């Protein structure tokens, strides 16, 4: 069953030949793979020597880098500007200064001209809007503490609802801003506005008091002191008060004024 001696010898020789053959092929394969010409075609994470044999690098990585480089060379959209930048860097300081003047001065002049035109247009628009509203004399309006002031020709004090409606309609039509200002007591001068102001001082009537509902109806320009006076005959008063009573009800409510007493709501919630 084991065969003749010659057969065994022959079998051993064939195995050795096969081993030698396989090793030779492996060696040739490795040698071929390490050739530079093979690298661009190689795929996968095979490691092989780089061209100089000094570094070892992934073939896949090398291939990827080559592709990216090719794409950059072909499609670089900034190559023109890069060229200009390099050109500029190669100039000496005098040439650079001259180049900056040639480019910078016309650019600055053009931008300045555009800004001037825009500014003039805005001013003209403001003037047109102002003309459409009836203007008075120029006057300086200052808050109570004299810490803030504005100069304006548009300071209106309507006497009744009709006048107020007319002013608001005109301002709306002309896209003009009208800021309501009360007694001007706010230390930050929040009611002041140079574009235009409506002051409600002349609309300060107490219109009605309802004792049952504990409700009082007043015009927005009524002072807190006037409201207190009007409530007194009915045995009523305000739930919460500030330390002064010269505010107009409009401003008093708007700033959500309050007095002492953590459990008491501010005036706009009482
Ligand atoms: C000496 C002093 C003491 C003070 N003590 C207190 C205090 O104890 N507690 C407290 O809370 N505050 C206090 N304040 C702040 C004062 O109460 C508020 O600044 C005041 O209520 C604002 O009312 P005004 O009428 O002066 O409004 P302004 O200051 O003229 O305006 C305030 C705001 O209200 C708006 N406004 C005014 N009227 C109207 C309206 N009719 N319709 C819509 N919006 C309007 C304005 O546009 C602005 O935004 C004090 C201020 C002073 C000077």
TrEMBL record:
SUPFAM superfamilies: FAD-binding/transporter-associated domain-like. Residues 147-270 form the FAD-binding PCMH-type domain. This is FAD-binding PCMH-type domain-containing protein. One of its GO terms (molecular function) is FAD binding. Gene3D superfamilies: 3.30.465.10, Uridine Diphospho-n-acetylenolpyruvylglucosamine Reductase, domain 2.
């Amino acid at each position: 069953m084991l065969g003749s001696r010659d057969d065994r010898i022959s079998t051993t020789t064939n195995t050795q030949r096969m081993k030698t053959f396989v090793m030779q092929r492996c060696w040739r394969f490795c040698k071929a793979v390490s050739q530079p010409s093979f690298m661009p075609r190689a795929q996968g994470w095979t490691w092989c020597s780089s061209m100089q044999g000094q570094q070892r690098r992934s073939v896949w990585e090398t291939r990827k880098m080559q592709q990216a480089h090719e794409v950059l060379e072909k499609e670089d959209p900034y190559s023109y500007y890069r060229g200009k930048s390099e050109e500029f860097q190669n100039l000496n300081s005098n040439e650079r200064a001259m180049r900056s003047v040639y480019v910078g001065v016309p650019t600055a002049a053009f931008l300045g001209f555009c800004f001037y035109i825009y500014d003039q247009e805005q001013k003209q628009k403001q003037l047109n809007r102002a003309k459409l509203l009836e203007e008075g004399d120029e006057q300086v309006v200052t808050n109570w503490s004299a810490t803030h002031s504005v100069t304006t020709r548009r300071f209106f004090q309507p006497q009744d609802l009709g006048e107020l409606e007319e002013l608001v309609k005109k301002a709306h039509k002309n896209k003009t801003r009208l800021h309501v200002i009360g007694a001007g007591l706010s230390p930050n001068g929040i009611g002041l506005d140079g574009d235009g102001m409506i002051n409600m001082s002349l609309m300060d009537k107490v219109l009605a008091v309802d004792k049952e509902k504990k409700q009082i109806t007043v015009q927005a320009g009524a002072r807190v002191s006037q409201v207190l006076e009007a409530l007194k005959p009915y045995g009523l008063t305000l739930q919460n008060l500030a330390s002064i009573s010269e505010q107009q009800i409009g401003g008093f409510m708007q700033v959500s004024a309050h007095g002492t007493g953590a459990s008491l709501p501010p005036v706009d919630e009482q």
